[in-house]
Design goal:
Layout: H1 3-22, E1 25-30, H2 34-48, E2 53-58, H3 80-83, E3 87-88, E4 90-93, E5 104-105, E6 108-111, E7 136-139, H4 142-150, E8 159-161, H5 168-171, H6 177-183, E9 192-195, H7 204-218, E10 222-225, H8 237-240, H9 245-250, E11 258-260, H10 267-271, E12 275-278, H11 282-287, E13 294-297, H12 302-305, H13 310-318, E14 321-323, H14 326-338, H15 344-354, H16 361-373
Parallel strand pairs: 1-2, 1-4, 3-5, 4-6, 6-7, 7-8, 9-10, 9-12, 10-11, 12-13, 13-14
Helix pairs in contact: 2-16, 7-14
């Protein structure tokens, strides 16, 4: 170690020690879009309830996440530029792509925001992502954790197997499905389908989106449309191809039948739905936690365009009805009402493999945060939910009797 490096290290240690003497631990939460806010919220909510911790938020483009951060006090929202020279005890992100330069940050943590295996994230050895810079990487399942450790991308002691905190409330039955349907103004006499495609000009949204939505409605379903936030970003062509999907969807919305929802957290929508239609997205894997019918709309080119791990493609499709046209979708939607238990075993198997001990991930994630902050966790945050308490939900409503 050079004298200069030693001096810098000593200065940082003094800076950190002085900061902890004069105020609370400072946490910077970096979100790229509204969905990332939902992914991190179970952990940040626990920290925000602790007077020993001050939580701040930042984003590469704050205008994109303004609505998601609407309830955060303005003084707790900073730009990447403002964050660069401020002191931080912990930086947390749900995306390794947009990490800002932080000159006075003690610890860094990355939380994975999905399991779909897109854009080479199941094995990013050749991607320009410096995972070694993170003091902890929080993994959703064993498979990805083991891949990253085996390839030397993350050191074993820095790889934390946590699960998916965002899914805890879903599997623990904390959402009122009927209340969500009422909030959206949906007819209570009909079953509800959720259409949730991934973002990409190669996705089912761009190929047959309106046709999928209208076909489901014509087959007697209420339809909730939940697009990925990036599909609504018209400023970046690779996300939306410049299409104004808000306007396109507004043209086909029908009161009580078809509703487009931009909620940051789709979990209440999952709880309120009897069927999901997707192409390839983490939300499809999440829906398997509820063990309800899933339809995958096959789109030529999406797998290559989104650089999806073929294993994840096979796994999701093994637990779903796969269709390649609107006509096939219509039949699959009818079959879902008549035989909702078809592929149940496959859905349960996939959910168990993709999400480590669902129901207790939040407690484990919060515990990692306190470890990095060098703070004892409050007693309430130190009691993880036992795995046996986190059984998948089963909705006892009878699909076939609904009209």
């Amino acid at each position: 170690m050079t004298a200069w490096a030693a001096a810098v290290g000593a200065a940082r240690s003094i800076d950190r020690a002085v900061g902890r003497l004069v105020g609370p631990r400072r946490v910077l939460v970096d979100i790229r879009n509204a969905m990332h806010r939902a992914v991190l919220e179970p952990i940040t909510t626990g920290l925000e309830q602790d007077r020993r911790v001050a939580v701040y938020y930042t984003a590469e483009r704050l205008s994109v996440v303004a609505e998601a951060l609407a309830e955060v006090p303005a003084l707790r929202v900073v730009t990447h530029e403002q964050a660069e020279f401020a002191r931080w005890d912990l930086y947390i992100s749900a995306d390794p792509w947009t990490r800002p330069r932080l000159r006075r940050c003690s610890r860094l943590a990355n939380v994975f925001h999905g399991v779909a295996g897109k854009y080479d994230l199941d094995n990013p050895a050749h991607l320009p992502i410096e995972f070694q810079a993170f003091d902890r990487v929080l993994f959703i399942n064993r498979d990805r954790r083991d891949r990253y450790v085996a390839h030397g991308i993350v050191a074993p002691e820095r790889a934390a197997l946590v699960g998916f905190p965002k899914a805890d409330r879903l599997v623990n039955g904390d959402y009122d499905a009927a209340a969500t349907r009422r909030r959206l103004g949906l007819e209570p006499s009909r079953p509800t389908a959720l259409y949730a495609p991934t973002w990409s000009p190669a996705s089912s949204l761009h190929v047959a989106g309106e046709g999928i939505i209208l076909a489901l409605a014509e087959e007697g379903w209420n339809v909730i449309v939940k697009l990925h936030p990036l599909s609504l970003d018209r400023e970046v062509p690779k996300y939306s191809d410049g299409i104004d999907w808000r306007a396109r969807l507004a043209a086909i919305e029908r009161p009580g039948r078809i509703v487009h929802v931009e909620d940051a957290d789709a979990s209440p929508l999952l709880s309120a739905s009897d069927l999901m239609v997707t192409d390839h997205s983490t939300i499809g894997f999440e829906f398997c936690l509820l063990d309800r019918p899933l339809v995958v709309y096959d789109v030529p080119g999406l797998i290559d365009t989104a650089r999806i791990n073929p294993e994840r493609v096979r796994e999701l499709r093994s637990a779903a009805r796969v269709v390649a046209s609107v006509a096939e979708l219509r039949q699959a939607a009818r079959d879902a009402r008549e035989r909702p238990d078809e592929l149940s075993a496959e859905r349960q198997h996939l959910a168990a493999a993709m999400f480590f001990e669902p129901g207790g991930a939040t407690a484990r994630g919060v515990a990692v945060a306190y470890e990095l902050l060098d703070l004892p966790a409050p007693q309430r945050a130190a009691q993880p939910i036992r795995a046996e308490q986190a059984s998948p939900l089963r909705d006892e409503r009878i699909y076939a009797t609904r009209t």
